[in-house]
Fold these 3 entries.
Entry 1:
Amino acid sequence: MGRSPCCEKAHTNKGAWTKEEDQRLIAYIKSHGEGCWRSLPKAAGLLRCGKSCRLRWINYLRPDLKRGNFTEEEDELIIKLHALLGNKWSLIAGRLPGRTDNEIKNYWNTHIKRKLLSQGLDPQTHRPLQGGAAFATPQQQEAPTAIAKPVNSADEGQSCSTNLDEDRFPDLNLDLSISLPCHSPKGSPPSEGLATTAAAAATSRSSYSTQPICLCCHLGFQSSEVCSCQTIPNSHVYRYIRPLEEGQRINYSS
DNA sequence: AAATTTGTCAACCGCCCCTTC
DNA sequence: AGAAGGGGCGGTTGACAAATT
């Protein structure tokens, strides 16, 4: 019994994608859209596993990808989001438009981990390593005992914010009970946008709150260019983060 | 210049969750 | 209600490039 394999492995290519395969995949998705990944390879004339096609598209071929080096602002956002969410790369990626979970995961493992270690921080817990007093971000340096507790499976979807956390980490609200507005007119779902879908998914099992929540504000970016919650006329519309324009920087000054 | 080490990142693997029947 | 299928996620691997010896 058991499950059938996701594809016929004997007749599929593996390894690096060729330009021709890329072109085939792009052309197919352009004309048919993203659909059933399982049947896509055959339909597109590709000798690839459907999962492989999906991964290639999402991580490399998608037109809205940002590419290029991570900015300092993105660094800080990743660190803060990781402190909140743990290794939930897809959720973190959802707050960084143009970045993929794979890209962020790689970046974390190759750069940020080392950066945190050099600052005397445990990359997993964000707590100071033995006897260390260093902190990850300039803002965190202002709260030398602040510790962000990563979400674990037990408390995922529940509020993890405490008064103690708020005292320790004034600029980083750890309340993860981000949720859909229960008073949303006609029960309309959160609006479009990359950033909203992940958040909605992350909270789909949690209780509903009555206040719209801006993740930017929660992460201490409320006065930055990134945060546009103040300017959104419809308070029912969730815009956790606005994509940075090319070369745009977050203004930390408050 | 060649050999070795280290770093980076695209891609794969296996598991889990959600949806459908 | 439960099994099966499909998509998505996180961890890991391996190929390649760059740096060092």
Entry 2:
Amino acid sequence: MYIYDSVKKTKLLFEPIIPQKASIYVCGPTVYDDAHLGHARSSLSFDLLSRTLKALRYEVTMGKNFTDIDDKIIKKVQETGQSLEEITTHYINRYQEEMRALGVQDADIEPKATESLEAIESMIQGLIDKDIAYVVSSGDVYFDTSKDANYGTISHKVGDDEENQSRVEHNSEKRNPKDFALWKACHGDEDICFETKFSKGRPGWHIECSAMIEKHFTHTHGSDEYSIDIHGGGADLLFPHHENEAAQSRCATGHELAKYWMHNGFVNINGEKMSKSLGNSFFVKDALKVYDGEILRNYLISVHYRNDFNFNEEDLLNSKKRLDKLYRLKKRVTPTKASKPNIAFQKAILEAMSDDLNISVALATIEDMISATNDKLDENPKDKGLKKETLANIELIDKLLGFGGKEPFSYFQIGIDDDTKEKIETLIEARNQAKIEKNYEQSDAIRDELSAMGIAIMDTANGTVWEKL
RNA sequence: GGAGCCAUCGCCAAGUUGGUAAGGCCGUAGAUUGCAAAUCUGCUAUUCACCAGUUCGAGUCUGGUUGGCUCCUCCA
């Protein structure tokens, strides 16, 4: 397995801390609003990583956190009058539901910041004891970036002369402009705060990840050099979030946080980054109202995870056509029992994914397999061995890439209710009768009628089948 | 102002160590079909934003130009 390390900026052979075990930690969402397509893409990217590593027989431990205490959540609490827990629970449930709809496998560990306060406090206290962190008069605790010689090695942002136009907040009590908050002191009665030895307040954004990784991974997957194998997240987290995480962990534990860093690209709408501030967010829940989760998944993973992804409906329909072809093949080999996948196919698709998740090549091998199989099936429609093998191939695709697992006839009938189905069947019967009588005017009229209903029909050796367009 | 990324067929999109441009959609010709659809087969970039350089050889390396994007503030 080769992966692109976005800190070293090169593709590296994946050599885990413990042979055949892979620990992955991905920064999850701050749960104050619904998940948008960007969350989905990040989730999907690391889902593919996890699935690929599993297919390569690694024992994968995946961690993904929920930031459930933060300024925006508190603002929502104040606005809505709901409790913090009500809000975060709601969005966490939504998030999990939607990601599952996209075929994302659940993480093994899903820690919440509010459930990790002890670990957070002890890590901060440790840093204070070493004088790497300091408490200011307000009660805020800052990390002293000047104490970490390696600060800046993650994002390669070095040589800050303070002359740049950095928009770092200016706080006179900070020792260095780049110092960041580990802990934010309470701001009055409206605030949500926790008691600690240093002050009453709540964790800063970066500390929770460090603390949670320390708490959940270090003893099972860590080493003297690294806490975990792979740390992932969106490209925008590289700085300052991951830089700061790395600094905290390095100073608190004496070893590096992650051996490899991976970052996924953005989802753009009309060529621009999708974000709250631009007001062009596209929520997963809205997309799921229009498109089946599997179709969305198939589309969102169709571009390499590191590239930016330009979301548009035309491309989505394009990728749906590719998925349709896979399901048409599945129809041809159903019903049967899967045997073993084709060795060459299995090797090719795994090799593609092992190369830093080269999904394009993986999809091309699928096209190859579909085409070759259809060809053979045209020659010999009753090749049982081929059918069994093909079904196994498709099962492999489902396991590795997370699509193609549906029952093929129902795939083409998503969103059609039973009454309509009955009507369609009746019309097809009538058309077949007309065809037997060679009344082609009649049969074509029926086909037009079905077409007007959004139903396409195809006459096959096994009778007439239909698909929703 | 600082840092970085990207630019490959009408559209989407691969292309580690330089060796002579995957795949899909669309289009098109044919096989098949009562006609279609589905399926199969053939065709579809002498060329990789532009300019210069290194090299026997560059989409791939170097320098420059143009255009687009991101980060430096919460952000997947």
Entry 3:
Amino acid sequence: MKAQSKVSMKISQLAKVTNVASKTIRYYEDIGLLPAAYRNDNGYREYGNNDIERLVFIRRCRELQIPLEQIKTLIVVQVDPKSSCQEVDALIEQQLDKVRKTIAELTLLEQTLHTLATSCPNDKVGDCQILKNLQQEKPS
Amino acid sequence: MKAQSKVSMKISQLAKVTNVASKTIRYYEDIGLLPAAYRNDNGYREYGNNDIERLVFIRRCRELQIPLEQIKTLIVVQVDPKSSCQEVDALIEQQLDKVRKTIAELTLLEQTLHTLATSCPNDKVGDCQILKNLQQEKPS
DNA sequence: ATAAACCTTCCAGTAACAGTAAGGTCAACG
DNA sequence: CGTTGACCTTACTGTTACTGGAAGGTTTAT
């Protein structure tokens, strides 16, 4: 069992250790992704260890481009010990699908752009093959 | 010399032939990407051949994910016959760069997601490897 | 005392539209 | 002649995930 060390820090400290901007932390609180922070006497937000963990979790999910709304549901599942992690599996799988589809699309796009980029040997706009190509329907 | 056939159509017709939503066409006019359309007696917008070409050009650029602001500059270059097409070249090249960078990023992301997706053989949240992984810093 | 470096809330802006409301117009049908 | 349906108009809001800035309070150091 880990000792529950009682760290306490202000928002910019939390921002530094989690690598999430203060502004973003407040935003997450606004939209209910983070619980309302404890406030000390002067009204400043105070944070502890749990907040670090929660924020790191969120940041990791964001790095995987998981939308905030889905992170919300992940957190709900996470804190409920009797829920199955099928939902988590599904969400990650779905995210993977999305990323793969995007890669496929962008790869086609890369082809098109490359073809286009190498299509114009001229330097006057009147003769520009790029512009001419862009004026026509896709030859797909 | 091409005959300047005098077609005339309303916005939904233009939308159909160019495959750009009426709403989007109005939006393009609002932001100055399209010139203010001619209005007939009842105040409806009327369009001709030039508008088709211009819109197809814009759509093609959008398919290449070129931002509207850059399309604006492309159009300026396009209509000025004495400008060089270096700017066009550069823009396409730049777009290609961006796409390639995004592909690279997404490919890494795909790896991470794939590893994550196959990391959890359990079905209770308490043991879920996916969640555990997400709670930690990236092991990069 | 004052300046720097924090903190607070609130409002606006980003990109590229899509949705909706409220209302005007036009052609056809009965 | 009335009305229905399919258009058209403007204007406003919502989307996603923040970021920037204004205006003001607090704390710390000099």
